[in-house]
Amino acid sequence: MIRPTGDTQAEQEEERLSQRQVEALVSYGRELRLTSGGSLFDERSVVDSFYVVLEGEVSIFRLDGAEETHIVTHKAREFTGGLAMLTGRTSVHRARAITESRVLEIDSKTFRRVAVEIPDVADVLISRLAERMRFTQRAYRQQEKLAALGKLSAGLAHELNNPAAAARRAAEELSGAGLKTQLLALQHDERFLPRGREALTALQRETAGATVHLDPLAMSDAEDALGGWLEGRGVEDAWDLAPPLAAAGVNEERLERLAEELGPRSLAGGLEWLAATLEITGLADEVRVSAGRISELVGAMKEYTYLDREAPLEVKVVSGLENTLTILGHKLKGVTVQREYEDNLPNVPGRGGELNQVWTNLLDNAADAVDGHGTITIKAFEDGDWVVVEVADDGPGIARQARAHVFDPFFTTKEVGAGTGLGLDIVRRVVASHGGEVSVDSKPGQTRFTVRLPKMHREAQD
Predict the structure, then answer these.
(1) Least C-beta-crowded within 10 Å: which of 57, 72, 416, 440?
(2) How far apart are CA 439 and CA 268, in angstroms?
(3) Which residue has the higher pLDDT, 421 or 267?
(4) Dihedral (Cα; 223, 224, 228, 231), 10-degree rounding
(5) By 3-state DSSP, what share of the chain in percent is helix, strand and coil, each rounded to 5?
(6) Which is the CATH superfamily of the domain at 311-454?
């Protein structure tokens, strides 16, 4: 369970009426008794009353599609229903008792008398209702902005995907067309005897699609060796021809055999043809891979944000983690990412887009901690009724005095301008709204954030 921060507890105390004020209100209303799960009002109701919880707990939910999102839980001496009552409109929320509860109902007409006859109660109610109204307005504005951004992102993703797919197809055709053109040119090139043409064609087939994976220093050594070999045989532009030949895995031994087939007079021309052919196919392949990467990123973004479809009731945790890693690929260059995913991991009930915000914030913080080098380890496994995700890094760790505040809003250990201090607060809130738990354990050389999400629905805590 995520416990409220000190500030949140203080706000809750400010929102509560005193016992004396509650007793003064009793004569203005009627008492309702609700069993656990009993409904107080829902989004189909026109709320014409103000409610004060006398005993028990009443939770407020918002309906997102077919799924409820927990907003807040009101306890004894807290109140609800004021905004809907004042506007006279249908409620946008639903209220339900989560334990056996007693609730005082004061109708709207009587509530106006309270404002006149018990001024100190009216001060508490009106100030809190005004604050809730400002919060609601901000939430609606934010929701509208996010909805507009979602539509823009969906359109952009669609527009990017079409030309990327077209570029990928064109690159595949370009590679084949370029090779065909080069082979036709070779067949009509009078500089080469049939034996030489066959040797060049055979070497081209050997190196077609070959990619040599060498570190930069080893590749530089290979290019130097080929350049020296070519220069020693009087080949012009030897150092221009060496890189594409080395990248295709051609070595000095293979060039010796080719030289025997071509002869000294045709060697330079043959190597120019081979290098040009390899460069054409290599560039076409690079375009194809790059266009494929764009399509992959667009697909990951659509999965990440759940664009163009409603969020499922069940979320694949590993899929969300992998999509997030794809999105953050630019920030993880040079970082070793170790994955330890349990096979056949069960899905969790929830909203995929929100959970992806959790993975993004945790992985983004881990990437900042290792600063372009080091290791990030991601584990996902089943533990009883929970699915557990751990994100660990081998960075410098979190100072002991800061550890207790990492989930507090606006708290950050980053330099001014480098962070808002809201990332882990969002993590805490999203995980809590899914009925889960989040914790951190840190020491120099190892920081681990652990998220526990229920496999089956549990009452969300906030």
Answers:
(1) 416
(2) 66
(3) 267
(4) 60
(5) 55, 20, 30
(6) Histidine kinase-like ATPase, C-terminal domain (3.30.565.10)
